[in-house]
Specification:
Blueprint: H1 6-28, H2 31-48, H3 51-63, H4 69-92, H5 98-103, E1 105-108, H6 111-118, E2 123-127, H7 133-143, E3 147-151, H8 157-169, E4 172-176, H9 183-193, E5 197-201, E6 211-215, E7 218-222, H10 225-233, E8 237-246, E9 256-262, H11 274-295
Parallel strand pairs: 1-9, 2-5, 2-8, 3-4, 3-5
Antiparallel strand pairs: 6-7, 8-9
Helix pairs in contact: 1-4, 2-4, 3-4, 9-10, 10-11
Length: 322
């Protein structure tokens, strides 16, 4: 058996230790102190810059072209603080009571997908990298139906297993994007079993099989999995906006709460092939997310390339028909 280099094994061990310390230590801290710590971490990350911060700034500049350089700097700082708030909540989430989760979330438009799941069907929800996906899933599992999603396989494997155990603890089943059975086939089986909510963060294409859509005046590549899943199984498709807002006194976590806005069921607006109808559905999802990205930009934790202008030329224009 081939062994990883010593430096790689040590880096992996440090990563595992860091996550384990985070899950235990951050949970034990008073709430205010924990969020203040992650604000300071965000400040350091912004000060140091780096690829992720540069990419976040580029993405924000595309969707908020009216901002001055100083205003954009402030928005990027807010975005990194929002991203660190997500991590603080992820570490603390397993220790929250159901009542605390309910107080930390406010939701609209959830009645129809809830009723679909309770009647034995499956609701498919297209979400973006907005706000706190895990807190939204924990609330949904408690109030709507158990949640299934697909996630990248983190490295080292021990870190992925820690995240897997964490998400399982909030009634969230994870299908690995790689290293297992075909994830789309697993999603098809899950959808046909019924009684679940399948939520997929799809505003970034991870497979090079996505489609180009318009996002706030720019071409962006998004995953078509939710749309195809709905078309092939007859499951209803919804798009959900998730973002942070200042919480009223007595609600929220660390002064903020997570807002979930699920739109009406989406159906193809065109006749045509499955691929053409899927493309139309993804555009509708992008349109629904655009409002939140525009008005709650700091909640959009997009530290990767998503716009076609930023992608490798070999990826541009690539589209695989199902």
């Amino acid at each position: 058996m081939t062994r990883a280099p010593l430096s790689g094994r040590l880096t992996g061990q440090v990563s595992v230790l860091g996550f384990r310390v985070g899950w235990s230590a951050v949970r034990a801290m008073p709430e205010r102190a924990a969020y203040a710590l992650f604000d300071r971490i965000a400040d350091v990350v912004v000060l140091r810059g780096g690829t992720g911060v540069v990419r976040l700034r580029s993405n924000y500049a595309r969707v908020r072209p009216e901002l001055t350089a100083g205003e954009l700097d402030e928005l990027v700082h807010d975005g990194v603080r929002s991203y660190m708030r997500y991590y603080c909540e992820a570490f603390r989430l397993p220790s929250l009571t159901p009542e605390q989760i309910d107080r930390a979330v406010t939701a609209t438009g959830f009645e129809q997908p809830r009723d679909v799941c309770r009647a034995g069907g499956t609701a498919v929800v297209f979400v973006g990298h907005l706000g706190n996906f895990d807190l939204a899933a924990a609330w949904s599992a408690r109030n709507l139906a158990p949640v299934t999603t697909v996630a990248e396989r983190l490295k080292p494997e021990e870190v992925f297993q820690e995240f897997l155990a964490f998400r399982n603890s909030i009634q969230m089943d994870i299908i690995p994007l790689e290293g297992g059975d075909n994830p789309f086939h697993e999603l098809l089986r899950t959808a046909r079993r019924g009684g679940r909510l399948i939520a997929l963060a799809s505003d970034r294409d991870l497979t090079a099989n996505g489609v180009e859509v318009d996002l706030l005046g720019h071409r962006a590549r998004m995953a078509k999995g939710p749309a195809l899943l709905a078309l092939l199984t007859g499951s209803p498709l919804y798009a959900a906006r998730v973002h942070y807002e200042q919480a009223p006194r007595g609600a929220g976590l660390g002064g903020h709460r997570t807002v979930i806005d699920i739109g009406p069921r989406l159906t193809p607006r065109i006749e045509g092939t499955t691929a053409e109808q899927a493309h139309d559905l993804v555009q509708q999802c992008a349109d629904h997310l655009a409002e939140a990205i525009r008005t709650h930009t700091s909640s959009w934790h997009m530290l990767q390339r998503v716009f076609v202008e930023d992608l490798d030329p070999a990826v541009r224009g690539t589209e695989v028909t199902p």
